[in-house]
UniProtKB/TrEMBL annotation:
Pfam families with a match to the protein in the record: FmdE, MoCF_biosynth, zf-Tbcl_FmdE
Superkingdom as given in the UniProt entry: Bacteria
Protein name per the record: Formylmethanofuran dehydrogenase subunit E region
MoaB/Mog domain mapped to chain residues: 391-527
Length: 560
């Protein structure tokens, strides 16, 4: 049986020249592609999706205009030997696959395709004869409609040069190319520069045995560790080594040290440069990073200790981290920054984060790469919590009629007062939308700028609280969050002549669980930090509470 305009032997030679040998999969693939082409309307401009990366893509490229290079063929590897050709505008087309039931009449094909025979045991002439005899009769064909995401081509994004390797790449991949992010499938063979050589490349800096270091100046802090007792710099950058220091250094396990002839001066870390190298000392780099990372409410002390700068809170508040830009910063080699988790409540003088260069020296080029990431502003800030005037609205006919004793008001009151807020009004109303709307107006008249409403947020027919809030003017609504407990929570704002009133709807689970979504989101609302659906989506990671018998939150991982 011919394969399109080719005889079997002609296509076999074509396959051999293109593929390296006449692979059975390529020969079968030729029949599959031609069968699909015959079932497309004449003149159709089509594209291809191949479900296997073996042989079949080559058949598509030999018999059609589709290729990986022009983007008209996509390999969506599902492990199935099938090809789909479809109208590139509408997605309508056909799918051709090999039918194991039909190939039962051809034992050599069946043995090859189902891997019943090892390759060395296959009778290749007989296998090729069966493939020619069977043709497309071992295939099945079915009409399909390709999903929209497989139709058309993604437009190229802006192209930039990677600051690490210097090669061009799509800017959407991040601050450095994906190869330099660690995805490269190879290692470039480059001569590894030893630490000693690198130090010696900087003017006046060298690595020497401690016995030869007397009278020389240290170029970095040296840490002493007594397990469970002490960890800190025993020797500091700029300190001159004396005879009496040799024994202490050896006791610390230091038998070689990096020194310079520069004048002594504790904490000094001058910039070292030579004819070709332009290196930045770890202390200088850490200080430069710190000045750009610290935003409002964040403090740090200089000079760096042990090569790093640590940040502390200059005030009580909510620690805010630009997580994406911090990730981008850490993609740059030889530097690092680590912090507490974003949206953590912190106290004044509490530790927040730390940054440093990893080697003793980094190049000016590497420093520039890091600073490029920091151009967008600080990474860290501590946002003060406003002292909100809170209105608490409890909804539910059973509570209004006294059938069930209210427990919400004391629970909510305790949580908001702990954060420095005051409760200006409380109210209990039945499951009546009009009464709820009037109650909301009463909260505003009492001066509330944060309304916390409880109950009535589920799918029960009597749960009308959310609808009542909409009647009262609620806008920018976010309802439902990927956090357990607290999924049915509601957020938004009600505009007014005196400003917006924030609204937080708390589901009934807050009565049973000590910690819920309420505890995660309340500080964010009080810090006036905007909350988006994207931020809520990220909270799903770590948003499942284990409901421990003894709750230790916030010292557990819930919400982090």
């Amino acid at each position: 049986m011919n394969i399109g305009s080719y005889t079997f032997d002609e296509f076999r030679r074509l396959a051999e020249n293109f593929h390296g040998y006449a692979a059975p999969g390529l020969l079968v693939g030729g029949y599959m592609v031609e069968l699909a082409k015959r079932h497309l309307p004449e003149g159709t401009l089509f594209e291809a999706v191949v479900e296997s990366g073996k042989c079949l893509p080559d058949a598509v490229q030999l018999l059609t205009l589709c290729s990986i290079g022009n983007g008209w063929m996509k390999i969506h590897n599902l492990g199935r030997y099938a090809v789909s050709l479809f109208d590139k505008h509408t997605g309508e087309g056909v799918r051709v696959s090999v039918d194991p039931v039909k190939m039962a009449a051809y034992p050599e094909i069946e043995g090859w395709f189902l891997k019943k025979k090892a390759k060395k045991d296959q009778d290749v002439p007989r296998l090729e004869a069966e493939i020619e005899q069977a043709g497309d009769t071992i295939c099945k064909i079915e009409p399909i409609m390709v999903k929209r995401r497989f139709i058309g081509h993604k437009h190229m994004s802006r192209i930039v040069c990677c600051p690490v390797c210097g090669e061009a790449y799509p800017a959407e991949d991040g601050p450095v190319c994906r190869g330099c992010q660690g995805e490269a499938p190879y290692v470039v063979a480059r001569r590894e520069i030893k630490a000693a050589e690198r130090h010696e490349a900087a003017t006046g800096v060298r690595v020497v045995p401690v016995q030869e270091a007397v009278g020389q100046t240290l170029v970095h802090d040296m840490t002493r560790i007594d397990p469970g007792q002490f960890k800190g710099p025993e020797f500091k950058a700029g300190q001159r080594i004396s005879v009496g220091d040799i024994c202490r250094l050896q006791q610390m396990g230091r038998f070689h040290v990096a020194v310079t002839d520069a004048p002594a001066g504790e904490g000094a870390a001058p910039s070292f440069a030579s004819g070709e190298d332009n290196l930045v000392h770890e202390n200088e780099a850490a200080e430069i990073f710190a000045r750009r990372m610290a935003g409002e409410g964040v403090a740090y002390s200089l000079p760096p200790r042990e090569g790093k700068v640590e940040f502390t809170a200059a005030r009580d508040g909510l620690f805010s981290v630009d997580v994406e830009r911090m990730r981008q910063f850490n993609l740059v080699p030889e530097i690092m920054v680590a912090s507490r988790q974003d949206a953590t409540l912190v106290k004044q003088n509490g530790p927040l984060a730390g940054t440093r260069a990893i080697p003793l020296f980094i190049s000016r080029e590497r420093l520039s790469q890091a600073l490029e990431v920091l151009e967008g502003g600080p990474l860290f800030s501590v946002l003060p919590l406003r002292k909100a005037r809170v209105g608490i609205l409890v909804t539910g006919t059973e509570v209004f009629q006294g059938i069930i004793e209210d427990k919400f008001i004391p629970v909510i009151t305790a949580k908001v007062t702990m954060l420095g807020c005051s409760v200006v009004k409380t109210d209990i109303v039945p499951d009546d939308r009009e009464m709820m709307v009037r109650a909301v107006a009463g909260m505003r008249e009492a001066g509330a700028d944060l309304l916390i409403t409880t109950g009535g947020l589920s799918v029960d027919p009597d749960d009308v609280t959310r609808h009542a809030m909409m009647d009262a003017g609620l806008t920018d609504v976010l309802h439902g969050v990927p956090v357990l407990p607290g999924t049915m929570s509601l957020m938004g704002r009600i505009p007014g002549p005196d400003g917006d009133m924030q609204v937080l709807g708390v589901p009934a689970c807050a009565l049973y669980f000590k910690t819920t979504f309420l505890d995660l989101v309340l500080p964010r609302l009080l810090s006036n930090r905007g909350i988006t659906r994207a931020e809520l989506a990220r909270m799903g990671d770590g948003g499942y509470c284990l409901s421990c018998h003894t709750c230790t939150w916030p010292k557990c991982w819930f919400g982090k």
